[in-house]
Amino acid sequence: MTDITGDKNNTDHTRIAWRTRPETPADAAAVRAVNLAAFETPLEADLVDALRADASWLPGLSYVAEAPDGSVAAHALLTRCEVGGAPALALAPVAAHPAHQRSGAGSSVVRALLAAAEEQGEALVLVLGHPAYYPRFGFVPASRFGIRAPFEVPDEAMMALVLDASAPVAQGAIAYPAPFGIRPLG
Question: How far is residue 88 from each of residues 20, 91, 136, measured CA to CA in Å?
């Protein structure tokens, strides 16, 4: 469990100490509710549910940020994927309840989750996301490492974060877990 103060980019300038922790089975409904509220469709909430039942699910790498009242304010998930046959992690989805967006809840849960992955000895995290948001965590275009998405995507949106600089970085196409529903190009 980690307490992380709100993001420096917080637009309302409040400083909230977000309590972040691994998701527990009791959080499943709240995590689903956050994803349903944060996105326009239920696809991300359904993805989280499907990943929980998949072999790509990694214990301790689904995190929540709690609001001061103890409710789940944000959620972030890392699951196993591969790059060129080597293990990596996929960061998806990341969601903050609309009532807590731009308050640092999302950034806090991502930072705590990435720290947990590093503590578990993971070496590489990939994210398809907004190129103005994820660089704050150290993500850079995945193409710098010879990593590519298995579908057409703007170069700046497919990003990678190397957690272990001493480990070789695999190159090639990303293979996502089946619940993502992604098939390789070609």
Answer: 23, 10, 20
| Strand, helix or coil for residue 99 | helix
Question: Other C-beta atoms within 10 Å of 128: how many?
Answer: 19
Q: What is the C-alpha to C-alpha distance for residues 177 and 55, in angstroms, rounded to an integer?
A: 8
Closest CA to 31 of 71, 69, 58, 3: 71
Per-residue pLDDT of the chain (186 residues; tens, 9 = 90+): 444 434 444 444 356 789 999 999 999 999 999 999 999 999 999 999 999 999 999 999 999 999 999 999 999 999 999 999 999 999 999 999 999 999 999 999 999 999 999 999 999 999 999 999 999 999 999 999 999 999 999 999 999 999 999 999 999 999 999 999 987 654
Compute the distance between CA of residue 126 and CA of residue 90 in angstroms, rounded to an integer: 5
